[in-house]
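Protocol step 6 of 9: fold each sequence in the batch and record its structure tokens directly after the sequence line. For illustration, a two-sequence batch is reproduced in full.

Sequence one:
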Amino acid sequence: MAKITLDNLAHSYLDTPKSEDDYALKELNHDWADGEAYALLGSSGCGKSTLLNIISGLLQPSEGRVLFNDMDVTHAPTADRNIAQVFQFPVVYDTMSVRDNLAFPLRNRGAEPSYIAQRVTEIARMIGMEAELDRKARGLTADAKQKISLGRGMVREDVNALLFDEPLTVIDPHMKWELRTQLKSLHHDFGHTMIYVTHDQTEALTFADKVVVMYDGRVVQMGTPQELFERPAHTFVGYFIGSPGMNLLDAEISGRTANIDGTQIDLGSGYEAAPGKTQIGIRPEFVHLSTNGEGLPARVRRVEDVGRHKIVRLDVAGKELSAIVSEEGGIPTDANHVTFDAGHINVYANDWRIAPSGKAA
């Protein structure tokens, strides 16, 4: 297991990058604690896989260093980093049996046969392939092969880190849930440092102790699922996490008041004046329909019943705004305004969250 340090790390696929826009991975400085489970979350092209491949040694960074337990491994080959990596698509030895595929990393390191047999049995049970242990990998389905890849990545107990690059893409939905649960159990039992790349917020939020949200080649926030939900540090985090994501409305901020299209909204706390574009962000869970004329004028456009609750889509100040209403809650036919829970309003300047006066961000 290892603490992983990213020290002034950056990467460009161009030989002579001339500006920040030429970097696929913009400068990063982070310490990832020994034994924690992290998810790298973001949309396609944000730099997640580039960062994972630099950590694993498959890619040499243009700038900066990678350290495992304070030892510089920036130029060390993958084999010397003592990591296991599972890729998006299955990588298996077709001519070998499932048993031999799972045993290969241990045999390659000279482990005792009795220990190999024990670990292979444990991992096969974990991935639900006990009945297929003596079958050749050739001819198995793509999701079965990916389970073998996952098992081979997890079979060693002595690795510095386990790296997963969207490993459940080819797995059917029911099995995804089971394997996520198994990975969580593995982490709990053995305490490996785990890094899991995904574009799926459900995978990230259910798997990780800390979620690392990436956007445009940089880490915009690292935190617990609760922190990302309640205090998104960047508007992208608010938009990307949640279903639906956070509502954003352009606003003029003055002290504890936001002016939105001529209507004054109480922010619950005071804010210093901020240059540039200012907005407020409010989760749909904290938006309420009103019939008494209080709040922002709104027009109901449609209602989506998703079973657990209803999503009300509204037109507010010329923009779509979402509100969540409980399945039992009624939607007044004469609802024409919305109000917000002041304690759950976030304020943004140029897309970055700003803290109320006198409080830490």
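Sequence two, same batch, same settings:
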Amino acid sequence: MNTSITRNIIRFVFLVLVQIAIFNHINFLGYINPYPYILFIVLFPIGDNRGLLLFLSFLLGLSVDMFSNSGGMHAASCVTIAFLRPWILQSIFGIAYEYNAVKISKAAFGERLLYISILVFTHHLLLFFLESFNFSDIIYILKKTLFSGAFTILLCLLFLTLFSVKRK
């Protein structure tokens, strides 16, 4: 089996299990709920099939929804960021994205941070809006998005650092 496929299967299962077992039980001060499972969408190979990414993003969100009893909010948020991902990559990496020369692990820290931040904050804003589903709670939604997003970005960067393979 292709190592890329194996790596993505392991990443998918690992992130869903860690999200369900550990991070779904964190609710610090009512605002901080980390969702590092979206790292799967962030790290999905750039040159691969876009339809496959959308399908796997739906399965990722649905898996978390099934164990969180959240009624499809995670699935909708994951599919949305998977759909927006090519435009975000294009706007951050420019011509390198068009030639499939982008490697997130080898990108400059600023570009990597911006890319992860845009995806995380988009995901969280949609997720928390769907959770509240009320425009009168906009301050609560924005606070929760900001604090949970910052913690999720920190966790994603930590995971990237811990699990990156150093090649010479």
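Proceed to step 7 once all outputs are recorded. Observation for sequence two: Residues 3-163 form one domain.
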